[in-house]
Amino acid sequence: MKNKWAILTVAAVAAGVFLYGHSSGAQTDKPAEPGQTAPDFAIKDVYGKEFKLSDFKGKIVVLEWINKGCPVSLGAHEKQQMQKTYKKYAAKGVVWLGVDSTEGAKPDQNRVYAAEQGLAFPILHDADAKVANAYGAKRTPHMFVIDKEGKLAYAGAIDDKGDKNYVAAAIEDLLAGRTVAKPKTDAYGCGIKNSKLAS
Questions:
Q1: H helices of the chain, where?
Q2: Contact at 8 Å (CB) between 140 and 73?
Q3: DSSP string across 79-98
Q4: DSSP assignment, residue 47?
Q5: Which of 100, 116, 144, 170 could form a disulfide with 154 if both were Cys (CB 3.0 to 4.6 A apart)?
Q6: 80-117, pLDDT tens digit by residue?
Q7: Domain identity same for 23 and 41
Q8: Whole domain around residue 50: which residue ranges?
Q9: Are residues 14 and 46 in the same domain?
Q10: Are residues 56 and 117 in the same domain?
Q11: d(Cα 199, Cα 189) in Å, to the nearest integer?
Q12: Is the pTM of this model over 0.90?
């Protein structure tokens, strides 16, 4: 009888460990949230140069999901909204990276687009949507700000569709050593078109 209980106890513990391991694994598959470590990545830009998030440790990094075919993303560039925000903070050491997760996006087309719109920051190609899934990027534009310690500090829209620039506000808070006052908002724009994007 004792042996029977011993076997049942061992089985129960093993099952608990199995379930815990799987539930923990599922949690790691969830997109990063503000306050958590920003997922590292290694993807190439339109010229074939590889960029790693870890290369920018100690710097504030902005990720902007773009799609030249999206009226909202295009509109933000035509208004120079992204370019002006980038230029304002580049002098303060802030890194800005465009990310295109559109399925079938061509580097040569984005090279032309960047020249036409005056985008002075790199555009990275995320063809398999791995980076988009890691961050939970769903729209273009979808914005993410990473602090100097590599933590995700802001995720959401570029602005409130008015005068409030959420990304600039987040950067200002970080530069002043403050916690970002509004760490998350709802991004608006076109849905990212990629069959590998998590639902």
A1: 2-28, 71-78, 81-90, 107-117, 130-135, 166-175
A2: yes
A3: TTHHHHHHHHHHTTT-EEEE
A4: T
A5: 170
A6: 999 999 999 999 999 999 999 999 999 999 999 999 99
A7: no
A8: 32-191
A9: no
A10: yes
A11: 16
A12: no
